[in-house]
Structure formats: structure tokens, C-alpha cells
């Protein structure tokens, strides 16, 4: 695949950047759309979405730097490369944390607004993984069966090698996830249900997809990849919170 889609003079449109931009825009617009459906309309909703996006990018970069800390110690010049290297889990957790802080500061209902925003996050991830496919990052394991992809011009994936298209599988799962979350959003009556559904489903899906990822530089914790380790932690924490919330409902 080609990451450089086309050029206009000195300006080149990259597939990865374009898909990220489409994803971010779709997430922000979806947040506004869902908020209106819930009867919530405020300029601060858009501001919250933008704060969450910025916070997500910052945390995604920071978590990536943590995973390659030994390499940074050996070669500090790695820090100069600010455009490459992101950990999606850092973006998710950072975005949620940033939105929570914003809502708390402006006395806004975080869980209600998070439910409005989180389907858009899954949608954005679907577009983002298409960008990964175009660039060749987040590539899959060596696989010569059907389907497979052979990159010829990637700066990330090994070129000339048959690989499983893990990016496209992740994209498909994210789009399915988006549909599920929108159904839950329409039917749920308790604030927080959508975001809890997102966390549970994403953790399971990400844990499974990691088995077919071939980019070893994403780090590891024991026998698990960094993302699998984080998936387990987030899944346990989310499941525990769901149990606690149901327990409080029964006692109320």
C-alpha cells in the first residue's frame, strides 16, 4: 500500500494522516449529534470533545515513550521524532481522563456526555486503523493464507513478506463496535452504560487481535504484549465497577 496518496505542489496528503483527521472529525460530530438526541446542547460539548482529542494524543505519545524508555536512554535523539510512535490505549485513557477533568471543572455530567461521545471514538478508531493499513504500521504476523497483504513501499512493515492484514480486521471490529454502541446508546437509560460497554468490548477485542500482530516493538510485560496487559487491567477494573454499581443499585 502507499501512504502518500497524492501531492499538490510541495504538499503531500498522507493516507495515515487523512484517516486520522477523518476519524477525529467523525468523533467530534458524532458527540454533538448524540448530545442533541439526549436533549443536551451547549458550546462546551464541542470544547469537551476537542479537549479529549488533544489529551488523547498527548497520552498516546507519553505511553509510547514509556514503552521504549530503554531505547530512549540509549539514544535520546529518538525524542526528536514527534510524529511517529503512538499507543492507542494511551489515547483512549487519556481522552477519557481529559474529558472527565473538563466536565468536573465546568460542572457537566461526565457519564452522560461520555455515553454521547464514546460511539464516535469507536468510529474514529475504525478510520484510524485504515490509516495504519495504508502506512503499514501495526502490521500482522507472517501469513501466506487468505487473506494476506504484501507491502512493497512501507516504512514500517517488512516489505515483500506476506502478512496477515491485522489493521483491516481491527478496523472491521471497530466499525462493528460502533454499531453495537449506538444500539446500546439508543436503548440504555442509565448513564455510563455505553462507556462501560465500550471498555469491556474493546478490551476483549484488543486482547485477541494482539495475537496476530507482528510488530514486536510495541513492548511486552512478561508473556503479554503491553496492550494485552493493559487490556486485562482495564477489563478487571471495569468489571469490578459494574459489579459495584449493581450492588449499590440493589441497596438503594
Which percent range fits the helix content? 55-70%
Strand portion:
5-15%
- Count of distinct strands: 6
Mean pLDDT: 88
Over the alpha carbons, how many angstroms does the gyration radius reach?
19 Å
Give the H and E element order. Answer: EEHHHHHEEHHEEH
The major sheet is characterized as: 2 strands, antiparallel
Q: Give the low-confidence spans.
A: none
Q: What overall form do the CA principal axes indicate?
A: globular
Number of helices: 8
| Structural class estimated from helices and strands | mainly alpha
What is the domain total for the residues?
1
Trace the largest sheet across and list its strands. 1-2
Q: Distance between termini?
A: 56 Å
How would you summarize the topology of this molecule?
Layout: E1 4-8, E2 11-14, H1 15-37, H2 43-67, H3 69-74, H4 88-105, H5 110-135, E3 149-150, E4 162-163, H6 166-187, H7 193-209, E5 220-221, E6 224-225, H8 226-251
Antiparallel strand pairs: 1-2, 3-4, 5-6
Helix pairs in contact: 1-2, 1-5, 2-4, 5-6, 5-7, 6-7, 7-8
Amino acid at each position: 500500500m502507499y501512504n502518500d496518496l497524492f501531492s499538490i505542489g510541495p504538499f503531500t496528503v498522507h493516507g495515515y494522516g487523512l484517516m486520522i483527521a477523518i476519524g477525529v472529525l467523525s468523533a467530534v460530530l458524532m458527540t454533538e449529534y448524540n448530545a442533541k438526541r439526549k436533549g443536551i446542547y451547549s458550546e462546551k460539548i464541542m470544547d469537551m470533545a476537542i479537549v479529549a482529542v488533544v489529551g488523547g494524543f498527548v497520552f498516546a505519545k507519553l505511553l509510547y515513550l514509556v514503552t521504549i524508555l530503554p531505547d530512549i536512554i540509549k539514544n535520546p535523539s529518538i525524542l526528536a521524532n514527534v510524529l511517529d510512535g503512538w499507543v492507542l490505549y494511551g489515547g483512549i485513557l487519556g481522552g477519557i481522563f481529559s474529558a472527565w477533568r473538563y466536565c468536573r471543572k465546568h460542572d457537566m455530567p461526565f457519564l452522560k456526555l461520555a455515553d454521547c461521545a464514546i460511539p464516535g471514538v469507536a468510529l474514529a478508531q475504525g478510520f484510524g486503523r485504515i490509516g495504519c493499513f495504508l502506512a503499514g504500521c501495526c502490521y500482522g504476523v507472517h501469513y501466506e493464507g487468505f487473506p494476506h497483504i504484501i507491502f512493497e513501499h512501507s516504512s514500517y512493515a517488512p516489505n515483500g513478506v506476506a502478512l496477515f492484514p491485522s489493521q483491516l480486521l481491527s478496523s472491521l471490529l471497530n466499525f462493528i463496535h460502533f454499531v453495537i454502541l449506538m444500539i446500546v446508546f439508543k436503548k440504555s437509560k442509565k448513564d455510563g452504560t455505553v462507556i462501560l460497554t465500550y471498555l469491556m468490548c474493546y478490551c476483549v477485542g484488543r486482547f485477541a487481535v494482539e495475537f496476530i500482530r507482528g510488530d514486536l516493538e510495541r513492548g511486552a510485560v512478561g508473556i503479554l504484549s503491553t496492550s494485552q496487559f493493559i487490556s486485562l487491567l482495564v477489563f478487571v477494573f471495569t468489571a469490578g465497577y459494574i459489579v459495584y454499581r449493581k450492588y449499590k443499585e440493589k441497596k438503594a
